[in-house]
Amino acid sequence: MNKITLIFFPLLLLSISCSSGNNAKTIPLKDRLLIAVTEFQNLTGDRQYNSLLDPFNGNFVFALQKTQCFRLIERKRLNALLREHKLKMSGLVDPEKSAEIGKLLGIDAVLVGNLAAVNYTSDKSKAGIAETVTEYIEIIINARIVSVQTGEILASGKSLSSFENTFRSIGKVTTGEKADLKLFVKQAMDKAADEIAQELANQVRNF
């Protein structure tokens, strides 16, 4: 029988305000950072995860909105503004250009993030003709908010998800199956959207 154990390390309890609890401090709209949300990057080197980035970007923007701690410029609007001023997205994270671009666009900070790693290892054990394979998957997703004026990292968040999957074979009979890495990455990204958004919000709340 296939054994799949899902182990998550949530960074903070989820909340619709800037921290958990009934006495959570909220940030008045006029005092919230205006942030340009850029596309999350796939740094794993495996292109099969690229198709997961667009849905994640949408979920992440929604999670940021729920915290009630930020004013956001979504990617489509950001791209339109950049085209209007004949600028490139890379300039937002370039310390020599970000202040000028930030002033033109009227933003305070830029949010950048990535699917940093999908680490996979496996162990095999044999007993006669029976073989057991246990797979271990670790997925890391990062994000940070960077001031366009100073280049300072104002807040950062990290989501680490670990999974364990076991399958066995006895001769030609197999129970369970090899892990679908893309499925596990999607599950990790679904969790990360809320986790990282809340982590960033709690840090910004303490400015």
- Quaternary status: single chain
Average pLDDT taken over every residue: 84
* CATH fold descriptor: Double Stranded RNA Binding Domain
**Tally of discrete structural domains:** 1
Radius of gyration: 21 Å
Strand percentage, roughly?
Answer: 35-45%
The CATH class turns out to be Alpha Beta
Q: What count of helical segments does DSSP give?
A: 4
> What portion of residues is helical?
25-40%
**Shape assignment:** elongated
- How many runs of DSSP E, i.e. beta strands? 8
What structural category arises from helix and sheet content?
Answer: alpha/beta
**Ends: how far apart?**
51 Å
Structural description of this entry:
The chain is α/β, with parallel strands linked by helices and 207 residues long. It has one domain (3-11, 29-205): Double Stranded RNA Binding Domain (2-Layer Sandwich), CATH 3.30.160. It has four helices and eight strands. The protein has helices at 53-66, 75-84, 98-105, 181-205, and strands spanning 3-9, 33-37, 41-42, 70-73, 109-127, 130-147, 153-170, 173-175. Strands 1, 2, 3, 4, 5, 6, 7 and 8 form an eight-stranded mixed β-sheet that branches. A hairpin with a 2-residue loop joins strand 7 and strand 8. Helix 1 (53-66) packs parallel to helix 4. The chain is elongated. The relative contact order is 0.22. Residues 1-17 and 19-23 have low confidence and may be disordered.
